[in-house]
């Protein structure tokens, strides 16, 4: 599901928005506050004015308002164009939202290949959610031929970023030698990390791997 506009309140103080001229930061913050307060008409007008001035966060928020039917005349084409503009400007949140919309078919037909493209852009910028999505696409062959090696690359990035599911999947890939060199010690390491992070199945897998390691000839 696409993140709601209210989820971008933090963007007012994020580095990508903090780089805006002072004269644009305050109007953006006010627009987000208007949205939070339920003054959708005011927020719509403010985001639209800022989007015209090339503010990526405003383009992103205005696009989501269109997608969520929160403007007088929702326009999917406008939403896609706005997300594309913000994404091309390097706004990671917009890249993730655009990828999700393409994957979900929010603009009409699903575009899994296009979604993966934007997931990878966001993933390369450090979005753990995008790293998991990109890894999953390569793992399952969603939009592209299955590529376990590429899947492992993104799962490794996401695991390092703290994603529990990615830790578990990376462990299982090392256990099986899928897309990576088979290495039970690395499998044990990532199962342990997943267990410590709260995964319920990981402790049992860790015990199994430890038994296999102990049974190896000295």
Helix content: 55-70%
How is the biggest beta sheet arranged? Answer: none
- Structural shape: elongated
Into which percentage range does the β-strand content fall? Answer: under 5%
Question: Would you tell me the overall average pLDDT?
Answer: 91
Describe what this molecule looks like in 3D.
This protein is mainly alpha-helical. It contains 12 helices and no strands. It is 68% helix and 0% strand. Helix 7 (112-124) crosses helix 8 (128-140).
Features:
mainly alpha, disordered N terminus, about 220 residues
How do the strands and helices of this protein lay out in sequence?
Blueprint lengths: L14 H4 L3 H15 L3 H13 L3 H12 L8 H13 L3 H13 L7 H13 L3 H13 L7 H13 L3 H13 L7 H13 L5 H13 L4
Helix pairs in contact: 2-3, 3-4, 4-5, 5-6, 6-7, 7-8, 8-9, 9-10, 10-11, 11-12
Short summary of the structure?
The protein is built from twelve helices and no strands. With 218 residues, the chain is mostly helical. It starts with 14 loop residues before the first helix and ends with a helix.
